[in-house]
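Exercise 7.
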Amino acid sequence: MRRFAFAVILALLMLINTGCWDYREPGEIVHAIALGFDIDDDGQYIVHLLFPNPVSPATGGGAETGGSTENQPPTVTITSVGQTPMLAITNAALFIPRNISLAHVRLILFSTRLAREGLAPVIDLLKREPEIRLSINSVIVEGDIKTLLTSTTPMESSPAMGLNRLLNLGADVSGALFAGPILDEFVKLPRPGHEMTITRVTVLSGAKGDGGGEASQLQPTAMLNGGGAFLGTKLMGWLSPREAAGYHLIQGDLRVYFKNLIVPGTEDFFTVEIRQMAGSFKPEIKDGELQIRISVKARAAIHDIVGRSMEQVPVLLTDPDVTTSMRERVAEAIKEDLVLAVERAQELGTDIFGFGFAFYRKFPKVWAELENDWPEIFKKLKVEYEVEVHAIRPGLMFTPIP
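Solution. The predicted structure, written as C-alpha cells, is:
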C-alpha cells in the first residue's frame, strides 16, 4: 500500500514539475528599455529600439566577450522597418544576436508625423502586446527620435532614461507637462466627449546623435514643452506650457507651479509658488444653454522679490490691503492660464478636459442629442471661472536683504 501511494505521489510530482515550455536563457535575452515609433513616406512603420549594451562596462558587461570593451557605449539603438508596427519590431531580430524582450520598456516615443497621421495602429499593438506594461510614460517627439535616443546627455546613461526620470519627477516642480501612465490616456478613447493629451518633447538643436560630445561639454538634448491635443488618435495641435498648466488646474491634478507677477503699487516683481490647488468643473444647463463652471482654490507663497524700490517692500508685506491685492493678482494670473487652456482647446476643436463626458454622465438624455455635434458645440461652449487664493505667505522674513 505504501509503495502504491509513493508511486501515485511520484506520478503527480512528475506532472507538476515539467518545467517552462517557453523558457529563454537570461544570457540570450536583451531587454528593450525604450520604443520609438515613426512612419516614412511609403507608409512603412519605423521602430527605434533602445537597449542597454550588455558588453558595456557601464552596464557591468564585457566579461563574456573577451577583448576590449572600454569604449563601448552604455546603450545601443536599433532601427527597423515594417508594414505594421509589430512587424517592424520583429524585423529588428535580423540585426540582433539575442532574443528581444519588451517586458522592461519604460518609455514610448511617438514622432510628430506619426501622431498627425494617427496613432491607432500603434495603440492597437500596445494594448494587445502582453509584455508591454501600460503603466509607462509616453511622449511625442518634436524632432528626430533617433537623434534623441543616440545622443549623450548629462547625469544619465541615456537620454531616454533621463527623459523618463524627468517625466516622473517633473510633475512635482512644473505644471507644464502631461506626465502620467499611457494607460490613463488610452482609457479616454472609448469615452464620449473626452480626448487624449500626451507630453511634447522638443529635441534641442545642440543634440548630437551616435553619442557625440565630450563629457565635459554635455548639454541637455531635449526639453519638455507642453503637450499635444488629440481628436481620437490624431494629433490636432500643441498646447504651450502655460496652456498645459491651465489644463492641469482644470483637471485638479496640478501639484505646484510658479508665477512671476508685479508687486501692487510698485514696479517690482515677485515670484510665487502656487500649491495646495483644488480644481474641479461641473456641467450646467441654464435657460436651455450649456455651460461649464470651473472652480479653482489655491494657496501661494512668495519666493523672492526683485526690483528697484526694495526699501518699500517691508511696508508692503505688512499691509493687509497690499497682501489682499497680491492674492487677487495671483488669482487673476491663475484665471488667465485657465482661459488660455480652454480657448486653445476650443480653437483646436478637441475636448481634452472631458466636458462632454461630464454632460454625458449628468445629462445622459441631453447628451444623446448632442453627441454627434459635440466637437462643434464644444468650440462655442460657454465657460465660467471661479478662482480663490486663500493665503499668500511671505516666507521666513518680511524684510528683504538690501
